[in-house]
User: Fold this.
Amino acid sequence: MPVSERSLPKYRMPQSSSDPRAVYALIHDELALDGNSAQNLATFCTTWAEPEVRTLMDECLDKNMIDKDEYPQTAAIESRCVHILADLWHSPARQTATGCSTTGSSEACMLAGLALKWRWRQRRRAAGQPADRPNLVCGPVQVCWEKFARYFDVELRQVPLEPDATGMRPHQLRGYVDENTIGVVAILGVTYTCDYEPVAGFAAELDAIEAETGVSVPLHVDAASGGFIAPFLQPGLRWDFRIERVASINASGHKYGMAPLGVGWVVWRSAELLPEELIFKVDYLGGDMPTFALNFSRPGGEVIAQYFTLLRLGHEGYRKVYTACTKTARALAAEIAAAGPFTLLYDGHGGLPAVSWTLTGPSPGFTLYDLTDQLRRRGWQVPAYPLPPERHKTVVQRVLIRHGIGYDKIMLLADDIRTAVTRLSHGTAGTDEQPGFHH
Ligand SMILES: *Cc1c(COP(=O)(O)O)cnc(C)c1O
Assistant:
């Protein structure tokens, strides 16, 4: 460790060069102050990687995803991943699914949203009707859809949560969908609660609306998390291209896809659903490799690492990992229910390997924010946050179980939760006193 007697440059580039090892050591040391990702139970993102992933990432440092001419194998591997995902999500064989990698689900959602907007406009213009007031209907979506709506001038019709609901319900669609609706977004793995929205129920309701009004509204499934869970844990659940009305699906490779940070995916049911004007054809590849992206240059390593995880784990591996994660989540749910005045919102059954809960009762004497603080003292990051505006008074807490967050670790968390609850309820949380421990 080099001895530093002055502060590191923060606002101006230094005039002179420095020894790389010294600079590395100083930056490495500063980064140690970041949270420990292995105890970050707030994130959906990959925090554990096999050594081979690190090697591939290193080998791909110079691969630019956009440069399909220079790196045709990287491009071919991206295309293989798209096909694998299209197959995993039951894209009908007779249709040629099309899709691409992105930096994450946010970019994937923007692209899917743009395709919906363009297709709606084409339909309206073809019918000689005005196409200047597009809207998008959704439930408690992730912020990327709010961004999409604002950046691309679409009215976001966010359906309020019914009391006790963890997502939008099919019968609510009727009041929000009209001829200017470019699409409905269904979420497979609601950010707030980790539950799935009933995609098949939405599709049936939209079928009924079409039968009555003639207005046909496509569905997009934001499967940022669920896209890599449902195929392995809930294979019988119909949420994907098995439903005719599902036009496109996105997922985050860097969440339950188990790839390192920086990759997402979007797949369309068939090539016609992606308007030509949005695609920039790169024909120097020999085929017609469509490029549809918000970014230009982008690292290729994450896509390669995604291909590695798909091959390395296979169906068997994903199923094993997430079966174990789900068991751990359910065990934590049982611990939470027994640990104090908590009501489970989602107990790890039917959706993501996760748990979410809220405080029960009129006045337990502490808030979930207090509990978050207490757990943070032990290094755990367990966020507390309010539900969407109409249920803003309900504060929830959530834990995500991923690869690398094992049963024993979660039982240690459960111990710490029990200790924190005892301290908070006895008003000894600010002191060093150990409840139940007599000197
Ligand atoms: C995380 C998430 C997103 C955004 O995904 P990124 O990959 O972080 O850009 C969008 N929708 C849902 C439901 C999510 O959980």
